Amino acid sequence: MNRIVTRRDFMKQAGVAAAGTALGMAGLPGLARAAGEPELRVGYLPITDSAPLLIAHALGYFQEEGLNLKKPVRVRSWSTLMESFLSGKFNLTHMLLPMPVWMRFKNRVPVKVLAWNHTNGSAITVRGDSDIRSFADLGGHQIAVPYWYSIHNVILQMGLRKFGLKPVIQRQTAPLAPDEVNLFVLSPPEMPAALAGRKIDGYIVADPINAISEVKTGARIMRFTGDVWKNHPCCVVVMNEGLVARQPVFAQKVMNAIVRSQLWITEHRSDAARILSRQGGNYLPVDEEILLRAFTGYDPAVYGQMGGTGAIHHPEWQLERIGFQPWPYPSATRLLVGELGRTVVEGDAAFLRTLDPEVAAAELVDDRFVTRAIEAVGGPGKFLYGRLDDPFHREEIISV
Predict the structure, then answer these.
(1) What is the pLDDT averaged over residues 8-17?
(2) Is the pTM of this model over 0.85?
(3) How far is residue 318's CA from residue 345's CA, in Å, rounded to a whole number?
(4) What percentage of the chain carries pLDDT values higher than 70?
């Protein structure tokens, strides 16, 4: 078993990097709660995307920063999570990156992305007896997505366009042409039962939803999303822009705890699965066996094209099934905004046609706090970055 990182270990890693300014001083664990500092209210969906927030609570990282909070609150759908954030029930949560794009630039919600919560971590899953082996086979089928404004919908439609297929949004009972793929939103916890009951032909979503179907019903991973867009962003850390402006020390403390959590998970994947599982802290209502698959199950011998399911086309990328690096690469936000403009969604998406990717990336993301938090744990080399000589920039790689 990997060694648990202790408070003393972290203090040695942090050294003097967290000192100097008021924001930097917020990086030292154990600080008392500041006068007027709000209670931290965390909401999450029961998927591995939420792991950094949950592990930061479970290991006491939020508490060591002097933050006052209760156990994070679980909800079942992205709509509920977003509505709870908008109402102020939660002041910290994870969201699929396209969601704050839609919230800020369509609905003028003052939401800020403070960091990436995780990378990769999702897949397209089909029944084990299905003849669906690739994007090219999805024509004429019913595929569920977790939310219209999701990285899942974006990547799925990248694959459909590559093979000349047309995404449509219609009733499931309506006839489909051979080159059409019907898309609809389904809450992630409902997806495994719908697939097993043959109500849908497949779904694209975060783990552990894919692992649940793998382990319990013999479903097959058709393709990992990280194998399409290398180390793509998925969920991000979001807070209200006004809260960040009024409480910068609070925001810094929050990011310090989350970045510590991300680094710990990267080094202790099996322990993280145990803590989050039903048998551990019951943050996720899932057995440890399934979460272990979700955190570590990325073996090319099982999922590769030679003798495997074909879910991994690029073993040379040397990815993990889910990653936890926090830096919000602007190149990925720009690419995502451009792809959203080509993605079919329900409702009015006209705002995307005039949304400049450069402007969107600059206005949506505030990377001041995550930058300090990364330095406090030893710098960007502690995480998997694209280039060691220039770690805060990368080239986006897509291979459908």
Answers:
(1) 33
(2) yes
(3) 32
(4) 90
Nearest to 233 by CA among 114, 339, 97: 97
205-253: pLDDT as tens digits: 999 999 999 999 999 999 999 999 999 999 999 999 999 999 999 999 9
User: Before 208, cis peptide (omega within 30)?
Assistant: yes
Pairing of strands 92-96, 166-168: unpaired
State pLDDT tens for residues 143-166: 999 999 999 999 999 999 999 999
Kindly state the tokens that stand for 29: 């664990």
- Tell whether the model's pLDDT for residue 398 goes beyond 70: yes
